[in-house]
Amino acid sequence: MNTPHFALGAQPLSPPIRSTKAWADTVNSRFLPLEHTALRSDDFVAQIDVLEQVPSGLAMVRSQAHRVARTRSLAERSDQGYFKTFWLLRGRCAIEQGSQRSTLEPGSWTVYDTTRPYAIELGDDSQFLVLLLPHAACQEWQPYSEQLCGYPLAADACSRGALFALMSLFGQPADTPSPEARAVVDAAGRLLSASILQQACVRERGGRLERRLEEARRYVVAHLSDARLTPDRLAAALNISRRALYLLFKSIGLTPGGFILEARLECCRSALADPIRRHRTITDIALESGFCDSAHFSRLFKARFGLTPRQWRERN
């Protein structure tokens, strides 16, 4: 039984191209029009295997350091929009689309929208796999385009399954029937959709958590002087249940009460080190930050910072 070509981590089989101009002409004519810039003055070499049986576009590439860019004019000139799925197999890669700039590590992947400008900068001895999928074939990706394009995506079971399925096509004879190749690409597209939708949901949840935590932080800071500020009052202010509030702070390893206490102690520490507030007594500063008892405040301050409030003020 022959070992599959892709299982060996093999390189592209096409003849090496040793001119950046020839390389640009090859990529632009066989795959996708891009602007090319070499990042080294000598010894440039690149290879690209394009599977002709896949109408939308599937290619394995290995190259020396260079930069490619999908400019606005190139993006606007295209008749059809694609999502470009990119897996880095070896080397280093910096990616940029819109306001997002990231670095890919070998084994990670990302998605671009070819109707918007993007840029990819590759280091020496980089190897990657690229799949173009028409927008019409993955309409469920559209709502998450701005959120995910250009971001490093997790290599979960679905995306790895898609990668291995696509790489297996490079180990097939050149005359592999087109229907067979299309079936593999279709299956890979469904796996990628599952991965993208799952990761988009995780990012959305993360974004909502961050916004909620920032809302809670602002409320706490604005009401530190109120001794009645408690987790229950904070939950009511955020219009969420007490249980939801505790789950929110659990995501950052804190309790609501611990967060309020930490904010009050930090406020007191800053005030005690402030020369402008030197005339204020330690008790005044503690009461202004929501503490009700000076002795209790002193014990909490020393437990947190290793010095009493008076020692901290004298040292600063």
Q: What is the overall number of helices?
A: 11
Determine the CATH superfamily of the largest domain.
Jelly Rolls
> How helical, in percent, are the residues?
40-55%
Output the helix-strand order.
Answer: HEEEEHEEEEEEHHHHHHHHH
Shape: elongated
Q: Which regions are unreliable across 5 or more consecutive residues at pLDDT < 50?
A: 1-8
Quaternary structure: single chain
**Cα end-to-end separation:** 76 Å
Strand content: 15-25%
Provide the CATH architecture of the largest domain: Sandwich
Radius of gyration: 28 Å
Walk across the major sheet and give the strand order.
Answer: 1-4-9-6-7
How many structural domains can be distinguished in the coordinates? 2
Mean pLDDT across every amino acid position: 87
What would a concise description of this structure say?
The protein is an alpha+beta fold and 316 residues long. It has eleven helices and ten strands.
Overview of the molecule:
The protein is an alpha+beta fold and 316 residues long. It has helices at residues 20-30, 72-77, 145-148, 157-168, 178-222, 231-238, 242-250, 256-272, 282-288, 294-305, 309-315, and strands at residues 35-38, 46-50, 58-63, 66-70, 82-90, 93-97, 100-104, 109-113, 118-122, 126-134. The protein folds into two domains: 5-205, Sandwich (Jelly Rolls); 223-315, Arc Repressor Mutant, subunit A (Orthogonal Bundle), CATH 1.10.10. It has a five-stranded antiparallel beta sheet. The protein has a five-stranded antiparallel beta sheet with strand order 2-3-10-5-8, with helices on both faces. A hairpin with a 2-residue loop joins strand 6 (93-97) and strand 7. The longest helix has 45 residues, at 178-222. 27% of the residues are buried. The model is unreliable at 1-8 (pLDDT under 50).
